[in-house]
Every structure is written in structure tokens, then in C-alpha cells.
């Protein structure tokens, strides 16, 4: 019986499905680890653990994995906010249009992402950027416990930079640690 010809995307999906089967089998045997491997781990165990860690990472534009992003440094974020028409963060009383006017940007249908980070001298700054899809990718990874950060946006993605942080942010894993928000053990 011949195998059907797969598109490139279907082929990649099949590889990912098979990789998940391998990771699931390792987990069922009790040796899969998302942490650094034990010193006595075999080469196969190290390879399967690396494969499983790679599967946990949800890829998104600006994650630094593409060749054209390799020369852009990673940007550590304290947290992010996504502003969209009709979908404002909980607790934010103003409308999307009012928030855009306060920030000094046009109200775009696709919305804006606010990246809270640090400038020179640990100055708290908010970057208002157009990369909403990148921000969604960050949130998808953070919700899985992955401390993934974007590469520095290109200048055309940055609308404005404001002093101080935007309220109602979702804290990054790095932000939680740096700001001491993790609580007591």
C-alpha cells in the first residue's frame, strides 16, 4: 500500500504527532523530564527529553527561532497587555478608543500590545507595539509554564515608548521572579 503524498505542512504535523507519541511513551515509562537530565541519563533519554521540551514551546512570530530573527536580542519583559476593540483587560474601565487616545496611538482594528520592560538604569517603560500575534504567542507559552521571551521588535513595530508600566498587565515568569511576586516557598 502506498502512502499518500503529504503537503509540507501536513508532513510537519505528522512529525509533531509522532514526536508527541515518543514523548508520551517516555512519560509512561516514568523517565521523561522537562528539567535538566540526571547525570546517569542515556543519550536516548537526553534526546527524548530535549524533543519533549521542544514540543512544549509554542512557536510564534518574533520568538527568535527564524533565521531573520537570530541577530535580534531577546527582550526580557515584566509583563504584557493586549488592547483590542471590545476585548479590554479585566478591571480596565476605559474603552479601547479611550485607551488609544490616552496612549497617543490610533485605534487599529487589530489592537495593540503593550510590553512592560526596563530601559537604561532599570527605568520602567512600556513599549506600544503592533505585534499582537507575538504577544499572544508569549501568553500561550507562559500559560504552559514556559519562560519564553520575544526578540526585540523591529522599529516599524514600535509605535511609542512611555515612561512607567501599563496597568492590568499579565506578568511574565521573569517579571514575577525579578519583582519578587512569587510568594514564599
Please describe what this structure looks like:
- The chain has 2 domains: 49 residues, no CATH class; 111 residues, no CATH class.
- 33% of the residues lie in helices and 14% in strands.
- A 5-stranded antiparallel beta sheet has the order 4-3-2-1-5, with helices on both faces.
- β2 and β3 form a beta hairpin.
- It is globular, with a radius of gyration of 20 Å.
- It starts with 7 loop residues before the first helix and ends in a 7-residue tail after the last helix.
- The model has no long low-confidence stretch (mean pLDDT 88).
Number of strands: 5
Question: In total, how many domains does the architecture comprise?
Answer: 2
Order of the strands making up the biggest sheet? 4-3-2-1-5
Q: So what's the overall shape?
A: globular
Number of helices: 5
SSE series: HHEHEEHEEH
What fraction of the residues are assigned to beta strands by DSSP? 5-15%
Name the average pLDDT: 88
Question: What is the straight-line distance between the termini?
Answer: 58 Å
Helix content: 25-40%
Largest sheet: 5 strands, antiparallel
Task: Quickly give the structural class.
Answer: alpha+beta
Q: What is the rounded Rg?
A: 20 Å
Contiguous uncertain segments of 5+ residues? none
